[in-house]
Design goal:
CATH topology: Pnp Oxidase, Chain A
CATH superfamily: Electron Transport, Fmn-binding Protein, Chain A
Structural class: alpha+beta
Distance between the termini: 24 Å
Order of helices and strands: EEHEHEHHEHE
Mean pLDDT: 86
CATH architecture: Roll
Low-confidence stretches: none
Number of helices: 5
Shape: globular
Radius of gyration: 16 Å
CATH class: Mainly Beta
Largest sheet: 6 strands, antiparallel
């Protein structure tokens, strides 16, 4: 589960997870977020839309104001459903470029990679 405030992406993981160990060694990360544009998208033979970017990860405390503000609904659910003793809370600040696939185009155009791909400069 990812959540964004428009400037960063917030998510959780487990401390024993390989990705957590790797991020502690190197805070430079690459993120891919696939998503379906709508219900019809699941019925049409087209790949999911995607965002790809590089960024820097920070490990934040569960009580950090950014985690509380951006993951509030998830945190409430998490407390009721799972043991949070090994949960970690992450913030990724994207770099200056975001690669997209299928974003800002009609669904059927996603079948044509030359129309579906885009590179966005983001400051």
């Amino acid at each position: 589960m990812y959540q964004s405030d428009g400037n960063a992406i917030y998510f959780t993981s487990g401390e024993p997870a390989l990705k957590a160990r790797n991020m502690r060694k190197n805070n430079n990360v690459s993120i891919t977020i696939p998503f379906w544009k709508n219900t019809l998208h699941k019925l049409i033979p087209a790949p999911p839309a995607e965002l790809h970017f590089r960024g820097k990860v920070e490990f934040l405390d569960r009580n950090h104001e950014e985690i509380q503000a951006n993951l509030k609904r998830f945190l409430d659910y998490e407390e009721k459903m799972i043991d949070t003793s090994e949960s970690i809370y992450l913030k990724v600040t994207p770099g200056k470029k975001i690669a997209t696939f299928g974003v800002g185009i009609k669904l059927l155009q996603m079948r044509k990679p030359e129309k579906a791909r885009n590179l966005i400069d983001w400051d």
